[in-house]
Amino acid sequence: xxxxxxxxxxxxESIGNAAATGAELEGLDVxxxxxxxxxxxxxxxxxxxxxxxxxxxxxxxxxxxxxxxSPYVRARQTLAIALxxxxxxxxxxxxxxxxxxxxxILDLLTRRGVARRHPEEAERRRHLGKxxxxxxxxxxxxxxxxxxxxxxxxxxxxxGHTALVVAHDAVVMLMLSxxxxxxxxxxxxxxxxxxxxxxxxxxxxxxxxxxxxxxFSAVGHLQREGAEVTVHPGSPDVxxx
Length: 241
Description:
By secondary structure, this protein is of the alpha/beta class. The protein has a single domain, classed as Rossmann fold. The protein has helices spanning 15-26, 44-60, 73-83, 111-117, 119-128, 141-155, 169-179, 184-193, 220-225, and strands spanning 5-10, 66-69, 91-94, 162-167, 201-207, 210-218. The chain is globular. The chain starts with a strand and ends in a 16-residue tail after the last helix.
């Protein structure tokens, strides 16, 4: 049995998302967050978004054979709230390969903070580009794509024909790049023009011509339920070119 239909969901807004955006707007060097990335929970808005995702899920749940989630708290919390208390008829699995991109020495730094505290990394990133730049102690997009290749190899073999993944913005982007597929230049152009919104749903299906994108970062369920649509582009590593 092989998966032929896949929904990719970004977690709801986290307190880390809100803190990072606030730090950028205030011109701070460091994001004021005293908690490791894996333990960052949803904000109150994120919980509302996860509940709104639950209304979408109630309409699709019977068609989903397996659920996958990142081990990070914000992703598992999003899935748990969306699933609610109804009895489970589908498998639910957590996989560490779905974790967010690790930023190493640049963790918790804003764009300003990277430029001021690690100018050599900002220059190295400008030279290597976003896809291949690996911060010391962290991961490049290419590194994340490598572990996602491993995940997809296992996940797409089943069980079932349909699956839903709850993870992070970089994970959604890089899964699309592997499935569609997109080369580096096309991926970076697409990522620069499109944001994976919190609690959004991206839908891909397998056709005779390969995987095709049906819908990207859909948030109609949030709008219908009155949940705020939040635009947090994830943790930046350097100032944009």
